[in-house]
Amino acid sequence: MGMRVVLEGKQLATGYRKGKRTAVVHRSLDFTLRAGELVCLLGGNGVGKSTLLRTLAGVQPALAGELELQGRPLASFPVRERSTAIGLVLTERVQAGGLTVFELAALGRQPYTGYFGRLTRQDRERVSQALEAVGMSEKAGNYVAELSDGERQKVMIAKALVQECPLILLDEPTAFLDVTSRIEVMALLHRLAGEEGKAILMSTHDVEQALALADGLWLMYPDGTMPCGATEDLVLSGGLDGLFGTSPVDFDRMCGSYSARNGQFRPVRLMAADDVLHHWAQNALMRQGYYGMTDSSDATLPLLAIESPQDLTWTCGGEPHRFHSFAELSAALRQGRPRSTRSM
Amino acid sequence: MKTAYRAEHKGWVCGGCLTVLVALLAVANLWMGSVDIPAEAVGRILLGCEVDNEAWAFIVRESRVPLCVTALLSGAALSVSGLMLQTAFGNPLADPSILGISSGASLGVALVMLAGGGTVAAGAFSFSGFLAAVLGALAGALVVMGLILFLSTLIRSNVMLLIAGIMVGYIVSSAISLLNFFATAEGVHSYMIWGMGNFGGVPSAQLPWFSAVVAGGLLWAVLLVKPLNALLLGERYAENLGVNVRWVRGQLLGVTGLLTAVVTAFCGPVAFIGLAVPHVARLLLGTSNHNALLPVTMLCGAAVALLCNLLCILPGEWGMIPLNAVTPVLGAPVIVYVIVRQRRIKYFN
């Protein structure tokens, strides 16, 4: 991969300095971010994601180590130049309901415009292109107040594009969005990274979408380390296992998601008519503390055979119980062992 | 991209209409008053021609022209201060009087007037007295403004900040009460009269000073249009757009403090214009883009102040109504309307 390195940190220490007292959040972080990449920063609450993003944005100085933006130390960028190098998108919604979508996105031209912020024709074209790129050009004349939260974030991304920065930092931009808007915004960012050649770093709690759409992950552990790498490499090397500390939540490498740990699972033989049925049968079993195995020939284990969602048979000790829905099966499993009306 | 030009176009139309309105109201202000002077005579006096009636010439030159110019400039100054504070705090209810800035100016004036034992009377400033009152008002306004700004770094919620501002206002008022208690009767009287508000407080000799300072402040405000637009997005976004937020906040403090202090020193603490006029301007324009909003707010403020002054001099021979008896009647309904229709008028959403 010959892609240009946009951001590089070596032995970076982040934290807060107030007078003589310093509160170190991270001691030595190493990372690189390349053009054309969407990278997600994952980690629990309070682990220092926002502190790192603030440091990368130049809002607060690094305590130690090197931080280079396009081969130059970030600290050497004057404020004005920094605003053309780093575009920011934040969690909170802006109180700019009285601006049109176009006007809001056009604020991203401020680093380039003159004293009164007048837009030239090129500026206007750039804004239109950005709104086109995020799919908001239809609503260019609408008030921001009329937009949904997801559309607002898209306009803020357009604002960041209009800034023409090689690096875009997003601090949990999807935190307040509903599922479809979250997916739309993530897919948009992934596309923009590729098409516009931007380096995009976003912090998020949305593990599922991050695994699906991020080219790379930065995993911020409670112990202060931050392994970085391609999504699949990290998943398969067990990188996501202890990400949220010792909380009773496990990472399921198969599904790519976290789920509540449920003590010891009791094994069950599971036979389902198709994959979809198998998936949801496993879901129901695990919730009740069972685990379905397809390859076991141990005849002493209970057997759950599923023909259709209306036809479920639980055989235990040679005695078959029939259920007509997952609700009946779950109720029986909750009570300890299947008790049901005899099959008809 | 027709839509992008909509606000700009509307800004020019609104600006034009308001300029005409301001001109008409200014003429009405010059023409009407407690003494009947024919319009033709007023015109001749203003053009510098000789008229038979020396008293008329004196009234127009020494009373009506200062009154008109003061009202026009004060209205623009207070409104634009209100607008800048509303944007800086992201709060539709911010204005110089609610945040306690005019109370601070009042305290400064009270110190000068009351501690001076009534020798410095409203409307009859000697030059040094006038300077003392303005400096007192400016110092008071800046101290309160600085306090509010300091509190704004501690208090994240804007509603809480407004409440803190109101509290600061109360504390300042209690200091003023104390000063009143120990002051002479003349001092209390002139302070009372001053507190009722009056655009006639600038004597013609000091009019050029007043005009120059206020015009300078208004010009300064115009220069802040670009960072004000960035501040609509909040401080963190503004910072990312290359705005030096601290420096801009400091300048906003300076301009609003200066404008409020100078106007308050001469005209008393004028209520509601700073709060209501920016909303009127936003409703007229349908935008919170300061490129159009800021000039239109100034014109709107000038028009409203001239209208209020006209209402004050309406009783004619019976004298003038205090200004602060008129402004709330016009201003309060606007605020109630904005609060009631908040879900529809989403300028702060």
Description of the molecule:
The complex is a heterodimer of chains A (344) and B (349). Chain A is built from ten helices and 17 strands. With 344 residues, chain A is of the alpha/beta class. Chain A has two domains: 243 residues, Rossmann fold (3-Layer(aba) Sandwich), CATH 3.40.50.300; 69 residues, no CATH class. In chain A, the strands form four sheets. A six-stranded mixed sheet of chain A has the order 6-7-8-3-9-10, sandwiched between helices. In chain A, strands 14-13-15-16-17 form a five-stranded mixed sheet. In chain B, helix 12 crosses helix 13. Chain B has one domain: ABC transporter involved in vitamin B12 uptake, BtuC. Chain B is an all-alpha fold.
Question: Which key phrases capture this entry?
Answer:
heterodimer, A: 344 residues, alpha/beta, Rossmann fold, five-stranded mixed sheet, 28% helix, disordered C terminus, B: 349 residues, mainly alpha, ABC transporter involved in vitamin B12 uptake, BtuC, 14 helices, 0% strand, globular
Q: Compute the separation of the termini of chain A in Å.
A: 64 Å
Largest sheet, strands/sense/barrel of chain A: 6 strands, mixed
Helical residue percent band of chain B: over 70%
Class per helix and strand makeup of chain B:
mainly alpha
Q: Which strands sit side by side, in order, in the main sheet of chain A?
A: 6-7-8-3-9-10
CATH class placement of chain B: Mainly Alpha
Average pLDDT of chain B works out at: 83
**Total count of strands of chain A:** 17
Most extensive interface, chain pair and sizes: A-B, 39 and 33 residues
The unreliable regions of chain B are none
Please state roughly what percent of the residues of chain B sit in beta strands, choosing from under 5%, 5-15%, 15-25%, 25-35%, 35-45% or over 45%: under 5%
Radius of gyration of chain B: 20 Å
**CATH topology tier name of chain B:** ABC transporter involved in vitamin B12 uptake, BtuC
